[in-house]
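for the record, two folds in this file. i put them one after another cuz i was lazy. first one right below, seq on top, C-alpha cells after. the second one comes after a little note so u can tell where it starts
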Amino acid sequence: MVEFDALKAKIPGEETGIEIKHSICAICSPAPHCGLSCYVKDGKVIKVEGWKEHPDSNGGICTKGQSNKEFLYREDRILYPMRRVGERGEGKFERITWEEAYKEIAQKLNGVKAQYGADKVAFYSGYNKWYRSMLARFAHSFGTQSYGTEHSSCFASGLMAWQCATGMEMGMNLMAKLFIGWAANGYYSMYKLPMGIEKLKALTGMKYIVVDPRITPASARFADLHLRPRLGTDGALALTIANQLIQNGWINKEYIDKNVHGFEQYAESVKEYTLEKGEELTGVPAAQIWQAVEMIRDAQTMSISESSAPLAHHHNGMQNYRCIMSLLAITGNIGTPGGQNPSEGQFAERTTGYTTHEHEFMFETYPENVDKAVGADVHPLWYELRRDMQANDLAQNILNDDEKSIKALYAHGMNYRMFAEDGKVLEAFKKLDFFVDVDLFMTDSAKWADIVLPCCTSLERSEFKGYPGCHIMYTKPVVQPLGESKRDVDIIVELANVMGIDDPLLCSGYENCVKHIFRDLPVDLDMVMASDEVIKIEGEGVGVKSGQWYMENGWRTPTGKIELYSEVIGAHPEWGLNPLPSYTPPINPDPEKYPFMLCSGARLPNVLHSRLHGSPWQRSLLPDPTVEMNPADCEKLGIEMGDDVEIVTSIGSMKFKANPSHTIKEGQLFVYHGYPERDINSIIPYREICDPYSGYPAYRSVYCTVRRVD
C-alpha cells in the first residue's frame, strides 16, 4: 500500500505547514481579475488554483491564471532599482537605492520641466492597469496632457464609437433572445463568456451567431450560424444586414422616431449594400447574410459582443464598431429590456454597478494652458473624446525633434513591441533626454531606460478591486515582495513627494485617494481593508442609471438621443471623417505584389501578448513563432507543416514556421504575436493604413505576400 504524502499532495494544514491565502490574478487586465487561492509554505507560493467563493469568477481560472506561480518567480524579475551604465539597449545596469533613484528621476524630470516645459514630459502605462487613475493624476498634476496607455491600441476605439452614439459605453446582455459574438473567441480570451452562452442556450433556447473569419472553438461548439467575412470587412457586413432590415420593414420604427438621431441619412447611406454587394465585399454568401437578417427579425431582443481588438485593428476600425452598433439602434435594442444597456468603468477600468468619482479624480488637475497631448493634431477625434495621448504617435513626435517634441518619458510597463513599425520606437528611445521604466521583468523596453524600477505582482501587493454586482475587496499580499519591489501606486506617491508635486491628495497616498474616489458611497473602506473577503456595497446611493432612465431623460450626446449621425464628428468637417457609420476597405499598396492579407493579432489560450512567452511551460505549448495558412495556399506554394516561410510587407520581411490549417480562409495569414525573436509588428506599417478616427494600427488587415524559404 502506497503511503499518502500530504506535503507532496500540497494539503494545507498544521502537519504540512501549508496555508491558503486569497488574492487575484492580474495577468489578464482588467476585466476578469479572477480570484485565486494561493497555497503558501515557508513564505513561498507552491500552488495556485481558483478561489471557489469569489463572487465573480466562482473558482474559475484559465491557463494564463494557472501560470501565476511561475510568473511570480521568473528569473528575469527586476528586484532592485537600477541605473543604466552601458549604451541604451545594451541592458547594462548598476544597482542603486530607492533614494538615489527618486533623486535622479526628480532632478531629470523637473529639469526638463524647467528647460522645456512640463508638457515635454510624457507619462505612459502598459500592463497592469490597476494604478492608472493615480498615474494619470500624477501626469496632470506635473503639468502635462501627454499621459497615454495601451488603450492607444486596445478597447478605447470601441468606447469612442459608443461615446459618439450614446455618450457612454454599453454592456453586453446574455439574456437576449439572440446573441452575436462578433470576433469573440471566448475560449481563448474570456472563458466565462462561452460558459454563460452554453448554459443559456440550453435553458432559454437563445440563438447564437458567431462572426469570425476563422473557425474557432466558439463557432464549432455551439454557433447556430457562423459568418466568416474577409479580414477588415465587418463594417460592410453590418451595413448589408442593416439595409435588408430597413428595406423589409423589420426595424423598430416607433423606437427610432423617439430615440434615434440621423436615421433618415443613415438609411439612405446603406441603400447601396445589397445582398450581392455584401457578398462581393465580405466573401460571406448572400444566403448566409439573409439567414442572419431573418434571425435578427425573429429574435426581437438582441445583444452583441464587439471584441475590443479584432474589430478595431483595421483602417476602418472604429467605423466597424459604429456599423455593428447601428444594428442595435435600428432594432430598438439599446437601453431596453433584453438589449444592451449603459455601462461604465467606475473603478480601475471595471464595471461594478456603483458610481464613483474616479474620472473626476483623474482629470481635476488636468492642465489646459499647455501643448495638447501627443497625437491631438493628427487624430483630433481621439483627443476630443479621450483627452490624452495617442501613444502610437509618440515615436514620430520624438523623432520630429522640434519645439513640440517630447524630451522625457516616465512609464510603467512600457512594451515598445506593441506598436506598429516599432523600430521607430527604438530610434525615439535613443533621442530621449531621459527615460524611466517601472516593470516586473527586464523587458526589451526596460533595457533602453536610464532608470529601471521594480514593481510587484498582484500576489505581492494590496489593492482595491471592484467587481460587478456592487462588490469590492482589498487584497492582501500572499507573500512578501521579492527583492525591493514596490506597489506601482507607492512608487507614484513617493516620487510625487520627492518631486514636490503640488497635489496634497495624491501625495497623501493610494488608500486616501481611493477613499476620496468612493466618498459618496455607503461603504467603510477601513472595514474593507480589514476584511479578507469580497464585500457587497449596499444602501442609499448605490447603483447606476438604467437604460430606461436615459431614454426618458436623454443620452449624453449633443442631441440627447442615440446618434447614428454623430454631431461630435459632424461639427468638424475639417477632420474629414464621416459622421455616419460607413465602410472603407483595407488599403493595399500593390494588389499584384501583395495578394495575401495578414492578421497579426491572433490569440492563444496560454499567453497574453508577450507577457507569458518568457514563462517556460507556457512557451512550451507553442515554442516556435508560427503562421497559420489555408492548406490550399500551402499546396500552391509548395509549403508543408513546419517549413520556414517568409512574410513580406511593404516595409519588411520576417520568417515563421508554417502551420497549414483548415480553420483559415484562403488568401489569409494568421500570426501569433508576442514572440520577441519574431517581432511581427516591426514589419507592419502604421501611418499609411492606420484608422484615421482612432489612430489604431491596422494589425489585422495588412496586405502582404508569403513564400517558402529553403
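(here's the note) second protein begins now
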Amino acid sequence: MNLVKSRLYLASIFILASTVCFGQSYKQAFKFAKFLDYLEAYYVDSINSEKIIDKAIVGVLSDLDPHSTYIPADELKKMREPLEGNFEGIGIEFNILKDTLYVIAPISGGPSERLGVQSGDKIIMVDGKNIANIGLTNEDVFGLLRGKKGTEVTISVLRRNVKELIDFKIIRDKIPIYSIDATYMLNDNTGYIKLNRFSATTVDEFKEAETKLKAKNAQNLIIDLTSNGGGYLDAAVKLADELLPESRMIVYTQGINSQKRDYLSTSEGKFEKGNIIILIDEGSASASEILSGAVQDWDRGLVIGRRSFGKGLVQREFMLPDESAVRITVANYYTPSGRLIQKPFNEGIEKYELEVYQRYNNGQLLSKDSIHFPDSLKYQTLVKHRTVYGGGGIMPDIFVPFDTSNYSVYYRDILRKGILNRFTLEYVDQNRAKMQKTYKEFKTYEKTFFVDEKIFESFTTFAAKEGVKYDEESLKISGTQIKIMIKALVARDLFGRDEFYQIYNTTNDTYLKAIEVLKNWDSYSSELL
C-alpha cells in the first residue's frame, strides 16, 4: 500500500471517528496518520504501510476483549464459510493417506455424488496433472478442487478392482456445510440431535431433523451441544423458539452503545412439549450457552455435562475499505434470568484462553465440588426458582466428570497423529466390497461386527509403523475404547455420521447419563425441575 492509498484508507477511518466520537477519536487518528507520514518520509529504509496498519488494528483490538478480531481480506471468505453454511467446490469429504488423496464420502446432493464418485476412490490426477506422491497438503486440495460455481475440473480416480483410471468432469457447485452431525432415534420415544455450530442453515436443518424424529414418534429430545463453539445469535434464538412456549424471553443483549434488545419466543415450535435434555461441556460456547441458558432458566428441561466455556459477548462485523473486516464486540448477552455468562478476561487473552485447561488442573472437570461461585453470581430460574449461576459459563443441572478411565499416552498419541482415522480408511478400502455385502443394514453391523484380535493386531502393527510403539500397559487401559472407536469410524465410512455417533455414544458418559435421566424422569425432575 503506497502513501496515497494509506492516506485514503485512514481518511475513511478519520471521518467515521470524528462523526461518532465528536472529534476526540479524529485527533488521535490524525496523530497516527502524521506518524505514518513521518515514517514514509524519513525512515532509513522502506516500510510496508499496509502491514503497519494491520498490526496497529490487531494491537488495538487485542487490548479490548478476547473476541474482537481483525480479519485480513484474504482470510475473510474462509472464515465465513462455516457460518454461511456452504462453499463452492466438487463436494467430497477427503483424507490424505500415504500421500494419496482418498474420498471418504461424496457429500450428499453434491456434484461428485451425482456423477458417481464413490467412497474409497483415490484421486490420482486433477486436470491431467499428477497429485499422488508429491507431498499433498489439505491447503493444496482446497486450491485444486474448490472454485467458483459453474467452473469445471476433471479428476481421475483409481478405484479398487478397476484397472483403468476413471475420469469425472465435474462442474463445481454450492456445497452445503452441515451444522448437524447426527440425527437418530435412540429408543422408541427419544430422538438425538448432535449440533456442531449455529450457522445460517442451522434452523432449517434442525426443523428437518425435528420432522424426521417426530415422524418416528419422538416425544423426548436430547440436543448435544458438546464442543459446539457457537455461531449466529439468531440461529440460537430460533432453535430455542422451537422448544419454548410463546412470549418467553430467550436472551437479551445490551451495551453502552447498543440499546437493550429482547428476543422473545413466538407461537411456533415443534418441541414445546416433551422432555428436553441439553448436553454441554467446556467446549460449548456463545450460541450454545444462549440455548442452554434459555432452557435452564425457564425450567424447560435439564442441562447435563460440565460447565460451558463462558462467552457472553456479541460481535458485529464491519467491512474496511480494503475488503478486510473487523468483528467488534458491541454488546453483552444475558439469559432470561439476567445472567451474564461471560467469564472474566481482565488478566489478558492468553490466560483467558488457557482457563479451560486450568479447570482440569484444579479439578473442576473431575468434581462438581471443586467449582465455587460467589453469592453475587447466584440467580433464580423463572418457574421453579432454582439456583443457577452466571459469570463463567452455564453450570449444568447434573454434572458429569471428564472421563479419564480409558486415557493413556498411547491413546493420546494415536489420536493426536490421526492414526485411528488412517487405519480405518485403509481397512475399509481393502474390505469395502465384502463388508457392504455382509452388512447391508446398519443394525446388522451394529450387532454382529466386532473388532476381533486379528483386526486389533493389524491396528497396533499399523500404529507402530506410524511411530506409536506397542504398549501393553496402555492397551490394558485404552484397548476397549480403541476398539469402539475403530468400529465407529468404520461405521462412518460404510454408512454415515448418524451411525458413527450411534456407536461412539455407547461409551459417552454424558450421553449415557442423559438416557438414565430420561428413564427416571419423574424422580430427577421432581428434584431438579
